[in-house]
Amino acid sequence: NKRIAVLTSGGDAPGMNACIRAIVVASEGKGHSVIGFEHGYNGLLSADWRKLDSKKVHNIIQRGGTILRSARCKEFKEEASARLAAKHLDELAIDALLVIGGDGSFHGARHLANYWNGDVIGLPGTIDNDIYGTDATIGYYTAIETAMDSIDKVRDTADAFERIFLVEVMGRHAGFLGACAAIAGAANYVILPELFKDTQTTLDNIHQQLAIHRQRYGHESFIIVLTENLWPAGISDLATQLETLTGGEVRPVTLGHIQRGGSPVSQDRMLATLLGVHAVKCVEEDKSGIMVGVHNNEPVEIPLEQTWENKKALSSPLTHTMLTMLNERHHWGLG
Ligand code: ADP
């Protein structure tokens, strides 16, 4: 029987609890024991942990956030930290550490593996879906739902006032969340890192698109989705520039952290459960240095390094087609 430890690290995401639950329930069924470290890698350094069993994870599948708390831990990058973490894990006779988090957290897991003999396995948990080697990440579907919902609400006002609204969504440096929210929310324009050329081209395109929209619908209720960290001088600058350009009012809305919270939608719960159960299977097979992900609804395993050495592509032909429905064709160079 194995002794398994789990922690959640980096940005929290809805479904992390569902994943912890899956790990605990699957482990218990096989006679393994599980402990949870608190506050990400900080808990590994301070030996702050608690036993987890099915009673402790009862009634958490629907809760956002993470019962183990999450945190950043700058000093974990140091060798001394990894050695200290290894010492604590050995003292507790842990066989495997499961890390639920984003690519930063996977770097941490890989770093630890250099100084610890136990098995380390990553599970992708981030609303950004910016991790190579998995079709989706825990929390991504819920964040799309939240962003889409917000666009629906913004549109009510945009329609009532015939105004231009600019909605900024998260995504760190990837456009997955922005693209899906824009497609599902039927936004009129979307600005994504993967397809961004420069500010002038974007402004010109929006201007042109808005003219077409005005002619077709006779009003200016127009919704633009913008991915965070993309517009050089920020969303307010873009709003001001658009006001100058169009002569109308442009309202910027930043969705912010509401996208990270809330009860996970069923897809995130299913994904969290699939990954959690598969990770326990990997522990039984003594696998290490891997991330468990999903591809075509089946679990997959890929070396941790590959998750950050490769960049996940946004554009499938289908995504392109759907995005073309929003933005002007030539903007994507599609002819
Ligand atoms: P995410 O996992 O969501 O990408 P971060 O990038 O903030 O979040 O990373 C989470 C934590 O992972 C960091 O606070 C740090 O403890 C650890 N970490 C990140 N990069 C490294 C690294 N190169 N070496 C060791 N630990 C790292």
UniProtKB/TrEMBL annotation:
It catalyses: beta-D-fructose 6-phosphate + ATP = beta-D-fructose 1,6-bisphosphate + ADP + H(+). Its EC number is 2.7.1.11. Coiled coil: none annotated. GO terms for biological process: canonical glycolysis; fructose 1,6-bisphosphate metabolic process; fructose 6-phosphate metabolic process. InterPro entries: ATP_PFK, ATP_PFK_prok-type, Phosphofructokinase_CS, Phosphofructokinase_dom, PKF_sf. Pathway: Carbohydrate degradation; glycolysis; D-glyceraldehyde 3-phosphate and glycerone phosphate from D-glucose: step 3/4. This is 6-phosphofructokinase. It is found in: Cytoplasm. One of its GO terms (molecular function) is monosaccharide binding. Pfam families: PFK. Residues 3-283 form the Phosphofructokinase domain. Its main location: cytoplasm. One of its GO terms (cellular component) is 6-phosphofructokinase complex. Its cofactor is Mg(2+). It comes from Alteromonas lipolytica. Keywords: Allosteric enzyme, ATP-binding, Cytoplasm, Glycolysis, Kinase, Magnesium, Metal-binding, Nucleotide-binding, Transferase. Belongs to the phosphofructokinase type A (PFKA) family. PANTHER family: ATP-DEPENDENT 6-PHOSPHOFRUCTOKINASE, PHOSPHOFRUCTOKINASE. It is an enzyme of class 2 (transferase).
